[in-house]
Amino acid sequence: MSDIRANMEAEWQKGPDAVRRQPTELQPPLDEFLRCIRRNPPSFVLTCARGSSAHAATFGKHLLERHLGIPVGAFAPNVATIYRQRMKLGGQLFITVSQSGRSDDLVESVAMAKAAGALTATILNDTESPLARVSDIVLPMAAGPELSVAATKSFVVSLSAWLHLAAAWGDLGDLRAAIARLPDRLAAATGLDWSAALQALCEATSLVSLGRGPTLAIAREAALKLKETSNLHAEAFSGAEFLHGPIALVESSYPALLFVPTDQASDGLRALAADLRRKNANVFMTGEGEALPALTPDHPDTDAVCLIQSFYALAISVARARGTDVDLPRHLQKVTRTR
Q1: pLDDT computed for residue 324 by the predictor
Q2: Alpha carbon 112 to chain centroid distance?
Q3: What is the pLDDT of residue 144?
Q4: Domain with CATH 3.40.50.10490 in the chain
Q5: CB neighbourhood size of 136 (10 A)
Q6: In terms of DSSP bridges, do strands 93-98 and 119-124 run parallel, antiparallel, or are they unpaired?
Q7: Alpha carbons 13 and 7: distance in angstroms, whole number
Q8: pLDDT confidence of residue 8
Q9: CATH architecture of 195-322
Q10: Which of 171, 251, 259, 323 has its CA 20 to 30 A from that of 225?
Q11: What is the pTM (predicted TM-score) of this model?
């Protein structure tokens, strides 16, 4: 296998070590961030991101709303780039997430938010990018170079950055302790065998990916990766939203991936799994003793990150079995520039 063809798999396997190294670079700007928000505490947060980074922002939304009680919304960049509307953001917080930092719509959105009075912080891998230059505070992912078109390592470290941010902002000792255990748990999650779902996904023309709470972002990322790497139509929903219409898609043998959180949100997904089985769907659920094995629960938020680390191995296997090249996904390039 050539070096080019090894990119996605090699970078996925480097994720645990990148998470282990991250605090060295992240902590100083995170301290600056905390000083700023404690001087002027925001009552609302807007996030801005595309692709996998948008799923990371969904994870951040869960963390800030769940643990800090601060409402979080997703900003539509076209408000700044196409409609040229300045939002009323005085004293609020605008957080952008990006691997490359080179998409024009994100850069222009941050510039608008800053001009509108927001504190702008960016969770970013390329700290020399245009997005870094326009942001008030840059929070480094510290993933190192990622050459694969389909992000893996950078997605995991962006989730880790959100964990650090939430734990520090909310002074959450239990989450801090779980973050310290996360690199070893990610390494263990890398080796879990999810091949029980391989044949069904190889044969599928469409499937659904479901999550709730901390795993909604994971379900969305999983669906995106199957599209990118296997040209497989996959749609992601929260378990609750799925019941409001999309469940009509379900027919005999229809594949459903359920990323079950290890907190109070698990009951609803487990009940949905039972209902889908009664409808003869082909259900693959995460958890101890399930078709998609998971580590023994530790903390619901870090447990969710471990699920995507395990999933990436399955995504690579599905692509190989379906005959697609994970390192040359059709119609895609590493840096996507939109406005």
Answers
A1: 85
A2: 25
A3: 84
A4: 7-187, 195-322
A5: 17
A6: parallel
A7: 10
A8: 83
A9: 3-Layer(aba) Sandwich (3.40)
A10: 251
A11: 0.94
Chunked mean pLDDT (size 10), the chain, 339 residues: 57 94 98 97 97 96 98 96 94 96 94 97 95 98 76 94 98 98 98 97 96 98 94 95 92 96 97 96 97 98 98 94 72 52
Domain made up of 7-187: CATH architecture: 3-Layer(aba) Sandwich (3.40)
CA distances from 252 to 182, 210, 256, 279 (A): 38, 18, 11, 7
Kindly tell me the burial class for residue 269, based on how many C-beta atoms sit within 10 Å of its own C-beta (0-12, 13-18, 19 or more). Answer: buried
Res 173: pLDDT: 98
d(CA 234, CA 209): 7
HEC assignment per residue over the chain: CCCCCCHHHHHHHCHHHHHHHHHHHHHHHHHHHHHHHHHCCCCCEEEECCHHHHHHHHHHHHHHHHHHCCCEEECCCHHHHCCCCCCCCCCCEEEEEECCCCCHHHHHHHHHHHHCCCEEEEEECCCCCHHHHHCCEEEECCCCCCCCCCCCHHHHHHHHHHHHHHHHHHCCHHHHHHHHHHHHHHHHHHCCCCHHHHHHHHHCCEEEEEECHHHHHHHHHHHHHHHHHHCCEEEEEEHHHHCCCHHHHCCCCCEEEECCCCCCCHHHHHHHHHHHHHCCCEEEEECCCCCECCCCCCCHHHHHHHHHHHHHHHHHHHHHHHCCCCCCCCCCCCCCCCC
The token pair that represents 10 in the structure block: 């090699």
The pLDDT of residue 339: 54
Q: Give the position of tokens 């779902």.
A: 197
Q: Which residue has the tokens 């670079």?
A: 25
